[in-house]
Amino acid sequence: MSFRQAFKMAVKSITGKKMRSFLTMLGIIIGVAAVVIMVSIIQGQNQRWMKYLESQGTNKLDVRASTWGYNAKDISTELSDYCMSLNDLVAGITPNLQMNEEVNVKYGTKTFSTWNYESWEDMITIYLGSEQYGLCNNYTIVKGRELSHLEVEKTNNVCVLGGRIANRLFDYVDPIGKTITLNGTPFQVVGVYEQKDVDNWPEWDNIIVIPYTFNRSLNRNQSIESYTIKAVDASSATRAVTLLNGFLKGLIPEEQGYFSVQNSNEGIDSANEENLVQSLVVGCIAGVSLLVGGIGIMNIMLVTVTERTREIGIRKAIGAERKSIIIQFLIEACMLCGLGGIIGIAFGYLGTLIAGKFMLQMILYPNMAITLGAFAFSVILGVIFGIYPAIKASGLQPVVALRAD
Amino acid sequence: MLIDVKNLYKIYNEGQESEVRALDGVSLDIDRGEFVAIIGQSGSGKSTLMNILGCLDIPTYGDYHLDHVDVTERTDTQLAHIRNKQIGFIFQGYNLIPDLNVWENVELPLLYQGVMGSKRRELVETALERVNLLDRAKHKPTEMSGGQQQRAAIARAIATRPPIIMADEPTGALDSRTGRHVLEILHNLHDDGSTVILITHDNGIAATAERVVRLSDGRIIYDGSREGAFT
User: Fold this and answer.
1) Chain A residue closest to B114 (CA)?
2) ipTM value of the model?
C-alpha cells in the first residue's frame, strides 16, 4: 500500500469518527492554548516590571534621613557634603525634593496647574534638583543642556523640561531659550529630556526641574530629607550603601531621627529572583495542565482500543500487513494531534493578544520556545497513544483481534 | 492438493487442568474446485479449523500446506500476503468496517494488494455486480440489512479473485430466504471454479455441498459425500 493510500485511509478514519477526532483534538487545543496564554501573561507582566525598574536607572541609591525632637539639627548640608566626599564612588547627587504647593505653569496662552489636571497622564511635577538630576534619575538630554553647577549655586532662573510637558507647552516650537513662568516667576528653558515612554508612568515625562536653591524662596524652605545618588558602578553602589549607613548612624542620634539607604540594584535583583520563582511556578502549572490535557488525549485513544482492535483484526484478515496498519494509525495520530496543536497555538496567540490588551495594556506575543514546547509535548503524547493500539493489536493473530469485545 | 492438513492440534492452556483441545489431530485434504461443508455441533472445533485454514490463527502442532507452501513456517507479513491473495474470508458477523461505505470496504483488500486506479475500480465494480449490490455502493454498513451486509462482505472476499472462498456460518445471522440467496452466490462462485469451504451447523445447507466433513470434539468423524453424511 502506498503512502498516499495510507494517508487517504487516515483521512477517512478521522472524518468517519468526527466526535472522537474532535475530543482528541480538544485535549491538545486546551492544553496548548492554556500554557501559551498563561506563560505569556506572566512573562508580559515581568517584562513590564523590568522595564519600569530599568528606566529608573541602575546603581541608584535612595537616601532618606530626617531628624526630629527638641534640638533637631538640619543634617541636609552635612549629608550632601558627605556624599560629595565619596567622589570616587559617586557620579552624581541630587536632592529628591518637589514643590508642595500648587504651581501654575504658563507659556504664552497656555497654563497648566500642578493640582488641577484632567487625567493623571497630564499630572505635572516640579522638582528642585541639582545639576545632576538627570544623571541620578536616568534622564537623557535630547535638546539643549542640563542645569549647570553655577546656575544652581547662583539660583539662576533656569529649568529643564520632561519630553511630554515640553511638547504640551511648546507644540513643535523649539523650547530652548524660551521663558516659562512658574506662579509668575520666569524660568528660561535650557534643556529638554528625552521621553522615557514607560507604559503606565507617563508622569515621568511630565517633569520640570529647577535648581534646588529655589527651595528657600519658592518652597518655604522645606527641609531636604531625601537624596538620590548615582554610584559609579554596582560595587561602588554596594560600598556607598555601607559607608552611608555608617555615616548616618553617627550623624543621627538614636530616638531623634530616622534614616534609610536603598539600592535600586537590589530591587532589580529581587525582581529577577521573583521572575525566576514566578516562571518556575507557572512552569509547574503549565506542566500540570499539559499533563491533564495529555491524559485526556490518552483516555480518548485508549477508550477506542477495543473498537480499533476489531478494526485492525478485520484489516489483517483481509490481508493488511502490520506495517501498513501502523503507518495508517501513525499518520492518523499525527494529523489529528498536529491539527489540534495548530488550532491550540492559534487560540493561544489570540488569547495572549486579548489578555495582553485588557490585563496589561500592551501588545503581548507568546514566547516561541514555550509555544513550540507545548505543541511538541502534546503532539508526541498524542502520537504515542494514537499508535499504541495499532502496535499492540497489529501484533495479534487476526482471530484474536477480531474477538475483541 | 490445494489444502493439505496433517495432524493438526489446537490446544489451549496446554498442560494445565483447564486444557482444552479444540483440534485434536485433524488431517484433511481439499482439492482445487471442491465445495466442502464442515459441520458439527458448537464447540466441535469447526470454527477453529476454519480460522487455521484461513491463516487467521496458528495451530499448536501439525502441518498445513496451502498450495504446496508450508503455512506454519511463514512470517506475519507472508501470512498477510496469503490471506490477501489466496483466501477470501466471509464471517458470520460480516465484519465490515463501519466507518467505510460498501465501495471502500470492498476496495480495502485491493488497496492492501497495491492494485492501482482504474484496475481497482473495475475489480470492485465486478465484485459488487456479482452480489448485485452496485446500487448500494455509497451506503454505510449500518444503513443496510443483514443480507445486504453479508453480500457486501462476499464482494470484499471475492474482490481480489482468490482461489479459495472460506465462509464461517455465512447464513447464520440471516433469515432463510436471504440465507438461500447467499448460498446461491457461493454456489455460483464454485461453478466459476473457486474452491469453497463452508462452515455450518445447518444440515440443510450442508446437504447442498458435494463433500461433507463432520467434526466432533476436535476430531473428524465423517469425511465423504453428502449422501452418507446424514445417516
Assistant:
1) A1
2) 0.92
